[in-house]
Prior knowledge:
By secondary structure, the chain is of the alpha+beta class. It is built from 3 helices and 5 strands. The radius of gyration is 12 Å and the shape is globular.
Amino acid sequence: MSTDSPPVLVTLPAVLVKLFPGCGRQVDVSAACVGEAMDVLNSRWPGMRDRLCDSTPSIRRHINVFVDGERATLATPLGPGAEVIVLTAISGG
Length: 93
């Protein structure tokens, strides 16, 4: 992570937060892109990146990430004050 990365707000799903003691639903991080934000989250709560990303690396199929309302990938850049929302996909049959 670069030292000049902008501060952003990441909102996490309750189901994920329950797995990581001390993690809140909303977390402030400094990151230049979604991938860096995932790295910051993982540095604070080891194992979180594995829950959000696969080994290719990309965002897991059942996870959706939005930046300022737009669907995002790990490469999506983050500007100052960006809002990153992580959602679990809902499926049914």
